[in-house]
Amino acid sequence: MAVRIRLQRLGRKKRPFYRLVAADARAQRDGVFLERLGHYNPLTDPADVLIDEEKALKWLRRGAQPTDTAKRLLSQEGIWKKFTYEKLGKPLPEDEAMEAEDTDSSENEQEVLATEASESSEEE
Q1: CA distances, 59 to each of 20, 42, 71, 97 (Å)
Q2: How many other CB atoms sit within 10 Å of the CB of residue 53?
Q3: Cis peptide upstream of residue 46 (ω within 30 degrees of 0)
Q4: Distance (Å, rounded) from C-alpha 1 to C-alpha 62?
Q5: pTM surpassing 0.85?
Q6: What would the CATH number be for the domain defined by 3-90?
Q7: Residue 37: CB partners within 8 Å, gap ≥ 6?
Q8: Which of 40, 35, 42 is CA-nearest to residue 60?
């Protein structure tokens, strides 16, 4: 069974609202699906996108192929990048950047505390 990650259209006429679902490729667009992964509302500004990262990664690991629009939404949320790095067996570059930011922020906090302490001692 070929599984696709695709959009399922909901809402009324001229007011679309979409669910991101994992569905059998042979199923109808608005028909039976295997699991709901999130939703997408293109009418809000900015567009409202909510995707459950764990569920999406689970289906991608199982071989589900996203449609072009679903792939764009996954990319916007950073899920597609995480999946490709995981597939290649490489760590996310963001992890390294976050670790560097953590050390920089702790150094900055120490400098601020030292500056505040010296200012308070000068006032006395």
Answers
A1: 12, 24, 13, 28
A2: 15
A3: yes
A4: 11
A5: no
A6: 3.30.1320.10
A7: 5, 19, 20, 21, 22, 51, 52, 55, 56, 59
A8: 35
Q: Show the tokens assigned to 49.
A: 């996108």
pLDDT tens digits, one per residue of 24-80: 999 998 889 999 999 999 999 999 999 999 999 999 999 999 999 999 999 999 999
What are the DSSP E strand ranges found in the chain? 3-12, 15-24, 35-41, 48-51, 65-66
* Residue ranges per structural domain of the chain: 3-90, 91-124
Mode of pairing for the β-strands spanning 65-66 and 3-12: parallel
pLDDT at 97: 45
Closest CA to 55 of 33, 32, 31: 33
